[in-house]
Amino acid sequence: MRIAYLHSGSIPSVYANGVHVMRMCDAFTDAGHEVVLHALPGTTPADDIHAYYGTRNRFEVRTHGQPAVPGAGKWIRARQVRADLRRRGVPDLLYGRDPFALLACSGLAPLVYETHLLWPSRSIRAVERSLFRRPNLRRVVCVSQALADDYRAAFPELTAQNTVDLVAAHDCADPVPLDGPVAPLPGRERALRIGYVGHLYPGRGTDVILGLAEQLPDADFHLVGGTTADRTHWQSRCRQPHVYFHGHRPPAELAPFYRAFDIVLAPYQRRAYCAGGVGEISRWVSPMKLFEYMAYGKAVIASDLPVLREVLTDGVNCLLRPPGSVTDWAQAVTQLAEDTALRSALGKEARRQLTERYTWRARADRVLPAVPAAAGPESR
């Protein structure tokens, strides 16, 4: 099947949405589909996009700039994407996270819309409502069951339409070999290495990590990721010499860091935000880093949030602790530091569950509907 993935973000970029989109296109290609990704031009340097993200397949990536026209830029770009699709041959399926481009192209082929938050913007919700009325919409994919439930409540027409499937599909990771290069981390040779990989936005728990460093002087803490501005902000507030900020690394370069960590953290707070504070996502979040931690068989300490309990079970594949309690998190780190058998058991079970339930390849099959090979009515 020929799939056009319509993305409203930049490729390449430092943002998690780009990683997610590239992983999905890679998985679609692994499944035997012909994929073309349509995205905004990149915002971070990369000589080779596929090498930057570490994809297995070299699917085509086409970029379309967005004019700086208030209120109209997204629609102008959406029409450019539509014109490009018609010029190059209409695909069998339109898939994506860009409601503007999907709506503009909706007459061309069957549609699948994926969403990772219930948008606070009324204008975007209006676009979604129009999209949900399109007769060739086949599926709406939500990144968690909590988000799917909230979409049902916000858009009753999704439940009323028998032709539209509402699917919950968590983020994922690829199974990885446990042996391989290990990052030569700075710090003390015998210190426990506590790791965090991800952005440093408000609500991601960076303050919890710095609080842990104050309470646990015998452990070294390593934070990988974050924009230059966010990293500078937190470094200026860090007073502990055993906290190391490694900055943003291309997704393809993260494996040695994961292997180097003894314990990994996912300290999401009760209010967490996307890049630029676009949306509050703690109710629906499905962090990719969590699944990557699981793929490497690491002992995870995570925030005890209802949405994370869709994947995590305390004492089985992780330890869950109250989001804002540094004391409880310090107790969990101490418990795992002293009980290596528990640390190993949690990591092994997490890796087993990842391999059986949460791979990108399995997600690709879950989110794709069966569609006819022929393209839509406006393709000729």
How would you describe this protein?
The longest helix has 18 residues, at 340-357. It is globular and about 60 Å long. It folds into two domains: 2-171 and 360-367, Glycogen Phosphorylase B (Rossmann fold, 3-Layer(aba) Sandwich); 192-357, Rossmann fold. The model is unreliable at 374-380 (pLDDT under 50). It contains 14 helices and 13 strands. With 380 residues, the chain is α/β, with parallel strands linked by helices. InterPro entries: Glyco_trans_4-like_N. This is D-inositol 3-phosphate glycosyltransferase.
CA-atom Rg in angstroms = 21 Å
What's the average pLDDT? 94
End-to-end Cα distance, whole Å, is: 18 Å
Q: Can you identify the CATH superfamily of the largest domain?
A: Glycogen Phosphorylase B
What would CATH call the architecture of the largest domain? 3-Layer(aba) Sandwich
Helix/strand structural class: alpha/beta
Secondary-structure element series: EHEHEHEHEHEHHEEHEHEHEHEEHHH
What are the segments in which pLDDT stays under 50 over at least 5 consecutive residues?
374-380
Summarize the biggest pleated sheet.
7 strands, parallel
Continuous helix count? 14
Strand content: 15-25%
CATH topology category name of the largest domain: Rossmann fold
State the share of residues found in helices, binned by percent. 25-40%
User: What strand order characterises the main sheet?
Assistant: 3-2-1-4-5-6-7
Instruction: Give the overall shape.
Output: globular
Any idea how many domains?
2
Total beta strands: 13
CATH class of the largest domain: Alpha Beta
